[in-house]
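Interim report, section 4.2 (structural modelling).
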Amino acid sequence: MQSMSLVVVGSVAYDAIETPYGKRERTLGGSCTYIALSAGYFVKTSIVAVIGEDFAVKDRELLASKGVDLEGLEQVPGKTFFWSGVYSADMNDRNTLRTDLNVFAGFQPKLPASYTHEPYLFLGNIQPALQSDVYRQMRRVQFVGGDTMNYWIAQTRDELLETIREWDFLLINDSEARMLVQENNLRRAAEKVLDLGPHTLVIKRGEHGAMLFRRDTLFMVPGYLLEDVFDPTGAGDCFAGGFVGYLAERGFDLKKGHVDLEELHRAVIYGSVMGSFCCEQFGVERFQTLTRKEIDQRFEEFRRFTAF
Amino acid sequence: MQSMSLVVVGSVAYDAIETPYGKRERTLGGSCTYIALSAGYFVKTSIVAVIGEDFAVKDRELLASKGVDLEGLEQVPGKTFFWSGVYSADMNDRNTLRTDLNVFAGFQPKLPASYTHEPYLFLGNIQPALQSDVYRQMRRVQFVGGDTMNYWIAQTRDELLETIREWDFLLINDSEARMLVQENNLRRAAEKVLDLGPHTLVIKRGEHGAMLFRRDTLFMVPGYLLEDVFDPTGAGDCFAGGFVGYLAERGFDLKKGHVDLEELHRAVIYGSVMGSFCCEQFGVERFQTLTRKEIDQRFEEFRRFTAF
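Predicted structure of the assembly:
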């Protein structure tokens, strides 16, 4: 039994990205990719996703090199999901130029039998009904949560509310939190989200950091101040990977009777650390060289620059 | 000798304010007012400012009740500075409807003799040449800094650069820091500001918190998450009052041979605390009831929600 393993569902894609620092015509991307690469520094990660015939051997190798279990990475006839976008000069906005769902349009996540008894599950940003479907295939989950986006909040609201009702944590950005409960004040919005099911809400604020809300705690961390942000694509997913990956590594278990709030706070820091590294190079490039030692050093840097 | 006293120069004004929570037709305002009311919780504060014949006794009494020394508050024929503005729905923007300089147009700050030997000086946001003028009247300053704004950066750039060259610290918001050194990346912008003279730079980011930069430290704090922001007018000045007031209270002295970085970090927290209280009611109303105990409790709250 691999008691510390994390199952991740989401998209695996190719991205064309342009930022003020340059461009890439075709680089590995997708929420599942970023989450798994990030979480892979903390815990064995098993992914559930779909790719087309055009998926490159080197990209499969990158994931495998981080110990990612690819048994649930289904390859089918057709092309891999393709996304293309351009960032604004200050990188706070981006325009989507193209979204070709390709094989992702017919994605019906099927969990390999070896995944179904894992204790940790992160449901990346896909249609809520598919997130529910994956959750139902798991037999012994002890900590489950996920992400969503404005599209699902607007288009599939009831389905989304039904889906997240069973989650332990929801991880979204501030505008999505406000939109989900139609409340502009973030503190009140968070309280309303905690009425929807998840006992833990993590709100990502990009360069402005992140917050964790529970009935019994509030935790805030400022954003890491990067010398250069080359490409913010995937930073939110890397945050998710660091957050849930760290908790899985620590064997976080709600059934232990008491919740270790300090572990949750540290998980937010590890999320922030992983999101910051993601921005330092294009696409997933930073993960080709990143080491656990660098990650732990940046964690300590966060401690230094927030202690008083 | 009152070795712990702080001298503050700036504007004393009447404001008409409208926010989504309501409006006030005429309420005490001005940078000097907010800084002094805030700093007054930490240290004896002596103000240098000008008012007109219409200045109300009750407003003079409010300042006096916080121990503010009013000897340098000059009353002259004419009307007090008047400002009127309306905030946007999310309060992140405001439109100025009216600015009547009135007696402030002829402001020539004259320090009472009793002020000139004080050790702490904060130069609120006025014309840089007047800030320099006040500084030159002081005889034994051991810690000096101030604020400025986009108008002075654009209109009196050389004068401003000459003024801040002698300051220990500069306290401005993020867009002003970027504008001052023409650098969009905040980390690099901060390094460039530290080349201009001040060895300490505090950047205010409103609801997103604040940062302190020095060659030997970086400190960041997230914003306090208020249940309701009634009126952000004066919050930046109250931050300044908390920051410099706390340092004055502690007898902060650069000539001691080493700089106590932890004191500087805590000063940023007290600044954040005072800025947050300011937003809880209209204008200066929160200071009618605020106690030092509440301030210290919120300081501890900051510790709780940022510790990991």
